[in-house]
Amino acid sequence: MAGYNNIIEIQKIRGYMYWLNERLLELEAEINALIKTREDDSDNYDYEKYEELIKEWNSIQRTLSTSQASIDKNYSPYWSVVSRLIRDEHYWFCNKCGINLSSNRDLLHLHHKDRNRINNDDANLEPLCIICHATCLGHSHLIDEITDEMKCVIYKKRALLSVESKKHLPYLKMTCSHKLKHADNELREIIINYGCWMHALYSNKIHPFTKAQARFVDVCNKKKNPKSSFERAWHYYMLENDL
Fold first, then answer.
1. Domain boundary among 84, 115, 146
2. Model confidence over 79-116: pLDDT tens digits?
3. Which residues contact 20 (CB under 8 A, 6 or more apart)?
4. In angstroms, rounded to a whole number, what is the distance separating the alpha carbons of residues 36 and 242?
5. Is the same domain home to 176 and 140?
6. Family, per the entry (predicted)?
7. Which of 32, 38, 59, 188 has the fewest CB neighbours in a 10 Å radius?
8. Could you tell me where the DSSP H helices lie in 41-78?
């Protein structure tokens, strides 16, 4: 697959930057309208909406303003925009631990697998939370940047994801063990490999990162018939619960 180095993708990125600038204008108009509402009719002023708009406005401003700073750090031009675009395409999931960081976007990095900061091929880029990123070869320096607050956010999300995933395990063991050759190991791997997809499936936000996950998603959406024991186990679960 062609990456973000060719002309078509550069045009796509520039188009995305144009959209960001357009969105800034829209946000400014919405923010000004809310400010006017606060002045004219304070009882109907939507404080939460105002905070939400300001947060998005600040986020876009940071993305646009850091483009040149990215070049100064030996990244490719528009790196901050490329990073945001790809993480958005992956729905802000960490590709390693599976947590969703859409509400804590600064904690999700985009990792260059070959450690070449200007190689922006799709296959070379991987969204990782800052803790998973710090475990990658040559990235131990990130450990010093991880604050207690960051750890708290990430570990809490991992714990919640684990609960969400593992609550399916008793049913799978009860109904599918006799259908699996090595039930315990295979059921554990279902949770490890596909736990976050179970939640994503319910949320209609599935975006596979590997061919195996893509096939599993197709099975979940009844586009393909299950073949592996993993796929059969989850397929039986879905049929039983009419999902």
1. 146
2. 777 788 788 878 888 888 888 898 999 999 999 888 87
3. 60, 63, 64, 81
4. 49
5. no
6. Belongs to the MaoP family.
7. 32
8. 47-65, 67-72
Residue 52 sits in which domain range?
7-146
- The answer to whether residues 127 and 87 touch, using CB atoms and an 8 Å cutoff, is yes
- Asked if residue 213 is part of any domain, the answer here is yes
Helices H / strands E in the chain, number of each? 10, 2
Q: How many CA atoms lie within 13 A of 225 on its CB side?
A: 1
Q: Are 232 and 186 in contact (CB under 8 A)?
A: no
pTM over 0.85: no
Please indicate, yes or no, if residue 109 is contained in any of the structural domains: yes
> What is the DSSP code (8-state) at residue 221?
T
pLDDT digits (tens, 9 = 90+) for 114-170: 887 777 777 888 899 999 999 998 888 899 999 999 999 999 888 877 766 666 566
